[in-house]
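Q: Could you write out the predicted structure for this multi-component system? I'm mainly interested in how the pieces pack against one another.
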Amino acid sequence: MGITERKERERAEMRRRIVDVAIKMFVEDGYEKVSIRNIADKIEYSPATIYLYYKDKDELLYDVQHEAFATLSEEFAKHINHKEPFKRLEQLAFAYVQFARDHPELYDLMFIIKAPMNVEHDEEKWKNGDPAYDALYNLVSECIEKKLIRFKDPTVATLSVWAFAHGFISLDLRCRFKVAGLTGEEINKVVDQSIKEYLHIIKV
Amino acid sequence: MGITERKERERAEMRRRIVDVAIKMFVEDGYEKVSIRNIADKIEYSPATIYLYYKDKDELLYDVQHEAFATLSEEFAKHINHKEPFKRLEQLAFAYVQFARDHPELYDLMFIIKAPMNVEHDEEKWKNGDPAYDALYNLVSECIEKKLIRFKDPTVATLSVWAFAHGFISLDLRCRFKVAGLTGEEINKVVDQSIKEYLHIIKV
DNA sequence: TTTGGAAAATAAACAGTGTTCAGTATATTT
DNA sequence: AAATATACTGAACACTGTTTATTTTCCAAA
């Protein structure tokens, strides 16, 4: 009597189909051009059908965000391999920046736009960001323990490194560096140099 | 025969009225709830009338952004008064953070949302941000000249300080620190401490 | 003071959005 | 085969930014 299981499986498959199309459209057309109607068109279902699988757009975006974090984790796994913890911290920082440059629309969804954060506002944690945060937190903690960086509190250290990188990325993504009168290539150079310098001055 | 002048003055007054109402609604109700129709309602004109004074919503938001930067400059003028340049840099940093906490919706418009940056995309500069950027740039430059901070390039230094503060503010405003499992008050403390520590380690 | 033309304001519409709901089609159970 | 439960959709609701044709208001010359 596996019909309940099959129904459940079919439901999961439909959700996958929706998320897959959604993330693909995000990457290709950008956040602003992805509507429920567009997604429905592409999977060849009525817009109302999407609401049978997702309570609202935010809930769908939350799953898309989850997928985006999986890609970030893959990038981390690919580029963080050095023996020394501090070197791994450098690798993580530049992998993070590179991810943002390669997938600006995903970065948007993960760290800048408001939308998918309204989902689990029940005082709970934000589960999507967990693996990436833990990767940074554990690495920073190891660096503190081995006295490789000038920090005492691992949370302060983790948030500082994160905020520093995110500050550059998000200001760049939102064109605020126009105020400095730099070209795109110049900005990239300044960002890279700034992060290098930051990692240097926090190094013990 | 000052009728042309009067017409021009009336036009300017109307634009002022629109911007004043818009910024007030922004602060009170938040960016997402402010529509052209809402603004039109409040100034008791038809929505179409707004388009006689502003080409589109972005152009209006650009003027609102200008107003918001004026408020930031006022805050800077109010809180930056120390003799020593480095102390002034500290004052600037915390005035910036305090502004973001006091006016989150304005901060959004100034530094986070995409909208008003599409206006002068003609390769030009971003004039709205100029005064605030210059204030930071000049102060940082003075600190470098007097060898008070560990930086050589004033642009790298300016963008680093800005990005560091902005990173914290924007991640907080977008609830991304939920991943760290901290309460609102705890986050504020970590942010303050992090900025203090950052200013300490860049101090020569 | 009336009239003609310019300027200002608007009602209504267009094309789009997220979302809901009544009704239809399909699948499963009795 | 009939009854029931599930899956799906067309159409609507209440919005959004924006445009256009129309009306109202203003002002200067006849």
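A: Regarding packing and overall arrangement: The first helix of chain A runs from residue 3 to 29.
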